[in-house]
Design brief:
By secondary structure, the chain is an alpha+beta fold. The chain folds into 4 domains: about 140 residues, no CATH class; about 30 residues, no CATH class; about 100 residues, no CATH class; about 55 residues, no CATH class. It has 12 helices and 13 strands. A 3-stranded antiparallel sheet has the order 3-4-7, with no helix packed on it. Strands 8-10-9 form a 3-stranded mixed sheet, covered by helices on one side. Strands 12-11-13 form a 3-stranded antiparallel sheet. Strand 1 and strand 2 form a beta hairpin. Helix 9 crosses helix 11. The relative contact order is 0.07.
Amino acid sequence: MTEWDARASAILREHATKVAVYSIAVSMVFWLASRVKKHCCAQQQSLHAYIVDIQRVCTISCNDGKAIPVPATLLQEHGGRQWLKLRPTSQPINQMVYGKVGKNASFSNHPKFQDFIAKRNQVWAKEETEDQVWDAANEDKPKPSAKKRKREDPEAVSVPLAGVAISCLMQGQRPTKSDVVVPLEASQLEPIFELLQEDADQLKARKPYQRKVQQEQKQPEEAINALLASMLPVNQQVDQMVASFKKYGLAYTCTVNPSEILCHPHNRAIEVLSWVDMRDKGTKMLSIGMKKQFLGESIAIEISTDSTTRKEQLEANQKLIQESTGAMAPMNGTERFLSLSTSHTTAFLRAINHGYPVPAPNPEGSMRTKWTLVTNINGEKIQHRVHQAPGHALQMIEVEYLAKLIHGKPIEETTALVHHWFN
């Protein structure tokens, strides 16, 4: 055998060995894969033989209608009771209330449902404020943190609706923004479903989305300045200002207790209010009988969140209370607002609510008839007694000048009202 033949034989033997090894490796892979497949199939068959799936499904039907299953994501356990999340965008919830509904059904813009949410948040805010009471008169004690409370566990509040106390869970970092969560009980759901049934046709007509252009948006300052520059009467200006504030989200309407309201330091030309007039108006109001509807349009602003301004506002009220010699109720730490109208009536109701005795009506009539009108003409003072002057005739002058004279401040105006007691 020549050298070339020997080399060729060696090359053939080498390639044959590699091919044989490769064939054996591939065969082993296919054999292992078949074994694994058989093992997995056997294991899968054995597993399926022992799996038992049991589910409990909660359904709700209204007025003998179709029973709608409730998704597990809308159910919650708390305090030994099961609760339901009334999520406005949930398709099953909409089907329970309205029956057959279209795609993307929602009752989030239902006006009465929004009112119910506002009531819930109001009850929650009141309880939250009571938990953060601090003594404003005692400056030695540090004020607690202004951060909102964070509840680890949900907390239930009671909201009245159609004569039924509806329990609502408040939970999460922002409880007032959370879903309405109520007990999964017929007595609790019926009033809410009846409320949602009202004005259901309005939900079908949705307002088209309109993109707002920043340049075309009218700023609230421009609207207020235009009202101030107008020749409208004062009361109409005030009404339109409040409407503008509400439009831009700067004002809202709510019902509060008189104990939550102090007087704004700039009220009555920075004279706040007259505690003597407060007692007079309150006594006269009780003598002729109170009418709640006359007190429903008061205006107030929230106490400032700025620490310096807030301190000034509270100190001004504390000074006023001390000067009243016990006629006005002390601060209790739950105050949230500063009144700009009906301040005297509010202060009087605060005093009554605090436990002060109701004053007896003056047998000689209202103290408003006991003012002395002072007119300065060329340095000469001419005084005459005004016994039965109508209240509205003295109202405008009283607002501007009364407090200055009571506190002994100098008078530069030519006309003023001086408080004078007749024995």
